[in-house]
Amino acid sequence: MTAKERVKIALSHREPDRVPIFEVAFDNKLASKILGKQVYIHNGASTYKKAIECNMLEREVRKEYIKEGALANVDLYTNLGYDIIAPSVTEFLAPVNCNFGIFGTNYIFDTKTKPIERNVWRISSTEGFWSLHKYSEESDTLSTIANSISEGGVTHFRKYIDYISSLDTNLNDWTRDGLDTMKIVLESEPVRNGELFVLGRAEICFPAFEPHLELFLETMITEPKLIDRYMEVTTEGVLTLLRAQLDMGVDGILGANDWCDNNGPFFSPSMFDRFFVPHMKRIVDECHKYGVPFIKHLDGNVTKLLPSLVNNVGIDGLHPNEPKAGMEIGNLKGEYGDKITLLGNLDCADLLVNGTQEMIVDAVKDIIKKASKGGGHIFSSSNSIHGGIPLRNVQTMIDAVKEFGEYPIR
């Protein structure tokens, strides 16, 4: 089978020739070692750093960087034998609040980027919105350390919502440049030959990685109608980007935003149903109109939200099912395996970092035994391939899936 055929069959809860393999993100340093040159793969912190630096230069620099990153992403995933790729269409843009690729067209507007000190940048707009971003070389992380909303409080948040509400949701230069990522991937030879199943990106604009997260959660209680306005206007912008990707011919959509930790969600299930489910459902319904699946990435313990995600939102898959957060894949298969496809579950926090090759193989076999029979399972780590994972362990995992994930499962 081609990768595209393999994934489609697995998502339809039937058994392909073997269990498909996927990673939502891959460390740049490891990717550069594999490809033998410096590359910036989508979703890495150093990728965001490079994107910020490119955004300070002329547009053609940014466009060339987008092209190089898209092609490197395809090279890496085909080199390693993955079946699915999920390039991000917005991480190269210049938003005031850099939320790791999670925003819509009207969430992005003309800004200026200024270096404050080494590895610290201020992104600002003439309307008075700004954010500070800091990159740590030691941990390879990029954080938004402050922004005008976290400093200005709910008054400034209201001003921000008023402003983005005044913008139209048409594609602009920044979003067109970002969509070049998807266009380049879709036009690449491996994808045209069916060697990769391509996931586009679309997600509600929950500010999970922003310094005003606490303010946002408080406002859900104190001014719920303000949150309603925010969710409505940002989702409209997301739908524009979503439709553009669906029209390009992506095979599916990945929603990659987090609102759970190992203990559970940041809010109650009733709050989730009240504020977020209607907007997630609009995104998922749009995917289904085009006949493509929606896969939800959600770290942490998702147990309390799963009934709504499955029955009310209508997701088709769940990633990454972290075992350390209590997401036991055998139990999930028994309860939800006939409704959604399960992705992930191999521990990347400890096992892939410190485990022996024998331990990794045993864990792969155990997950396949619990989750793969009957289809509806796609293998990946419990989050991503980060810089602390030795390359030999990555290859051990992939080789073990291909050996023990052949159908029928032994």
Structure, explained:
Strands 1-6-7-10-11-12-13 form a seven-stranded parallel beta sheet. A four-stranded antiparallel beta sheet has the order 2-3-4-5. It has a two-stranded antiparallel sheet with strand order 8-9. α13 (329-336) links the parallel β11 (317-319) and β12. The model has no long low-confidence stretch (mean pLDDT 95). α8 packs across α9 (224-248). The protein has 410 residues and is an alpha/beta fold. The protein folds into two domains: 1-18 and 324-410, no CATH class; 25-319, Alpha-Beta Barrel (TIM Barrel), CATH 3.20.20.210. The protein is built from 16 helices and 13 strands. The protein has helices at 3-11, 28-35, 45-55, 59-80, 148-166, 173-187, 189-192, 213-222, 224-248, 269-275, 277-289, 306-313, 329-336, 351-354, 357-371, 391-404, and strands spanning 84-85, 112-117, 120-124, 130-136, 141-147, 197-201, 252-256, 260-261, 264-265, 294-297, 317-319, 341-343, 377-378.
| DSSP summary: helix tally | 16
- pLDDT < 50 stretches: none
Largest sheet: 7 strands, parallel
> What is the number of beta strands?
13
Quaternary arrangement of the chains shown?
A: single chain
Which CATH architecture of the largest domain is right?
Answer: Alpha-Beta Barrel
The class by helix and strand makeup works out as alpha/beta
Percent in helix: 40-55%
Please give the CATH class of the largest domain.
Answer: Alpha Beta
Give me the Rg, rounded: 20 Å
The coarse overall form would be globular
Query: What's the order of the H and E elements?
Result: HHHHEEEEEHHHEHHEEEHHEHEHEHHEH
- On the 0 to 100 scale, the average pLDDT is 95
Task: Record the strand order, biggest sheet.
Answer: 1-6-7-10-11-12-13
Distance between the amino and carboxyl termini: 20 Å
What is the CATH fold-level name of the largest domain? TIM Barrel
Structurally, how many domains make up the residues? Answer: 2
Beta-strand content estimate: 5-15%
